[in-house]
Amino acid sequence: RFCIPLLLASLPTMATGEEIAPALQDSWGDFWLFRFFVNAAGYASIVVPGFLLIQYFKRRNYLETGRSICFPVIKSCVFGSEVKSVHQDDGSLPPRAEPSESSTARQVFKLLFCAAGLQASYLTWGVLQERVMTRTYGATETDPGEKFKDSQFLVFMNRILAFTVAGLYCALTKQPRHGAPMYKYSFASLSNILSSWCQYEALKYISFPTQVLAKASKVIPVMMMGKLVSRKSYEYWEYLTAALISVGVSMFLLSSAPNRTVSTVTTFSGIVLLAGYIIFDSFTSNWQDALFTYKMSPVQMMFGVNVFSCLFTVGSLVEQGALLESLRFMARHSEFTAHAVLLSVCSACGQLFIFYTINQFGAAVFTIIMTLRQAFAILLSCLIYGHTVTVVGGLGIAVVFMALFLRVYARSRMKKRSKKLPPGETPVQKV
């Protein structure tokens, strides 16, 4: 009851003069704002009791007084097994280890490996994402088919496979001793599933090129989150190159997709969802970067985040009764089943590359790689659907690579300068 007046009040704020997207014509219960509140209520039903339990165990000084059979589990979830590191109080220090003795060629190879893995995983994922969220299944000459509407179920499918892969990998290989309190993964998990939900949901209201354009401008928000969450410091050229990359990719994307279909018109709802995606995603990468101050592997990070992601999403789906409904949709449409499974595989592989890249190079470098992926996604669309690249689009690509070369040159100069500093001086810490 409380949501209905707020919902009705928000409807007129959508872009006037544009035809309402078909996703809004089915029922008000499918409107994104209502779904967001319903999902948030489901997450709160798990988060609030968990928060109260954590506060209870901390106030009781459970580490000294607890002796029950659940003591190891509670200790691992609430308190962890060890402290972060010697430098945990210095928020400016980078959490990942970059050995000074590693050769430049090896670092370049690692960067290329991360970039190739991210591109392959997320280019495939992007193509499938648009297919699942914007097209119908089961269409015939007499039947228009039906669209899949529950974005949260797709998030759950992605996370359950990633959880399984990470769990098997941790069980079969030797991993560092885990010391982080498990509940700390829940922050990154919650922002991660919210950003993924916003990303899927936004495709109901805006075109895919518009969504890609918004993703391309994430570099600066991530750097801002880095200052807030991890207290990182950046040089002026890092801000300059981040801005140039965003401008260049924006030029290319805007010039490559001048035509918009009526069913994917840009609306106020789509813009709000994209803003939510950028904010949540920026927080996720920087919180994960901060968690690496604990001695853990990227796969342990992946496992911890996805444990809570599965818990949050399946709990919310069961409470809404949406889990069985989505499974029935899968049973009716085998093509959707294949697409959902392949989406999950790409997501799981992509997460492995995300955690490894952030651990090795930091959140800002990871975002630059993903920004390039936006341009490659449009290039792939041009190859598949026959779109042409304009002169402005070509200039945008040139601006992007110019910014990357400038960033590499500036980083190398800073490293050389830091080696010449006297022993008592410390250069500004960069990502």
User: Between the first and last Cα atoms, what is the distance in angstroms?
Assistant: 47 Å
* Overall pLDDT score: 75
Number of structurally distinct domains: 1
Query: Helix amount, in percent?
Result: 55-70%
Tally of DSSP helical segments: 16
Question: What's the topology here?
Answer:
Layout (H helix, E strand, L loop, with lengths): L2 H8 L21 H28 L2 H4 L5 H9 L24 H31 L16 H22 L12 H18 L5 H9 L2 H11 L6 H21 L11 H24 L6 H23 L1 H11 L1 H28 L1 H23 L5 H29 L12
Helix pairs in contact: 2-12, 5-14, 5-15, 6-7, 6-12, 6-14, 7-11, 7-12, 8-10, 8-15, 9-11, 9-15, 10-15, 10-16, 12-14, 13-14, 14-15
InterPro entries: EmrE-like (IPR037185), SCL35B1-4/HUT1 (IPR013657)
Keywords: Membrane, Signal, Transmembrane, Transmembrane helix, Transport
GO molecular function, one term: 3'-phosphoadenosine 5'-phosphosulfate transmembrane transporter activity
Structure explained in plain terms:
69% of the residues lie in helices and 0% in strands. It is an all-alpha fold and 431 residues long. It has one domain. α7 (185-202) runs antiparallel to α11 (268-291), α7 packs across α12 and α12 (298-320) packs antiparallel against α14 (334-361). The N and C termini lie far apart (47 Å). The relative contact order is 0.15. Keywords: Membrane, Signal, Transmembrane, Transmembrane helix, Transport. Belongs to the nucleotide-sugar transporter family. SLC35B subfamily. InterPro entries: EmrE-like (IPR037185), SCL35B1-4/HUT1 (IPR013657). The chain crosses the membrane at residues 33-57, 108-128, 153-172, 236-255, 261-280, 301-318, 338-356, 363-386, 392-410.
